[in-house]
Amino acid sequence: MSINAVGPNGPRRYGATVMTEHHSHDGETYHAVHVKREEAEERRKELQGLGLLDSSRKIVDTGEVVEIPVIGLPKALHDKYQLIVQDKPQFRQEDLDPYQRIVDRAKIEKDLKPFLPKKWELLGEVVVLKLPKELVPHGEAVALAYAEEFKAKAVLRDLGIEGEFREPKMEVLYAKGTTETVHTENKVKFALDPMKVMFSSGNIDERIRMATVPKENETVVDMFAGIGYFSVPIAVHSKAAKVIACEKNPVAHAFLEKNIELNNVQAKVQALLGDNREAPERIADRVIMGYLPSPREFLQKAIKILKRNKDCVIHYHENAPENEIPWALYSRVAGAAGEPGRGAKLLSYRWIKSYKPRIWHAVVDVKIL
Question: Could you tell me the pTM of the whole model?
Answer without folding.
Answer: 0.77
